[in-house]
Specification:
With about 80 residues, the chain is mostly helical. The protein contains 3 helices and 2 strands; from the N terminus they run ααββα. The chain is extended.
Length: about 80
């Protein structure tokens, strides 16, 4: 299971696994996550972070698209 996302853990379980990875690893805090979401929305002017990535900026200089689907497109049958 190395390199695969962990699921079905309690908050305490995620916290323990993050701490076991060593210095610099921790469970993500809600306020920090919400700050990241706000920054994304301001930069990309969309709530759809899974939109396809587009490196070309608009004529006004704004980012467009999103960050891509990421691990949400993993084949569940192959993953298990």
């Amino acid at each position: 299971m190395l390199g695969r996302p962990a699921t079905s853990l309690t908050r305490s379980g995620f916290r323990t696994r993050a701490a076991a990875r060593g210095t610099g690893w921790s469970q993500q805090y809600w306020k920090a996550y919400m700050a990241w979401v706000r920054l994304f929305v301001v930069e990309y002017c969309t709530f759809n972070s899974q939109a396809n990535y587009n490196a070309t900026k608009t004529t006004e200089g704004y980012m467009q698209g999103g960050l891509g689907a990421g691990v949400s497109i993993v084949n569940n049958t192959a993953w298990n």
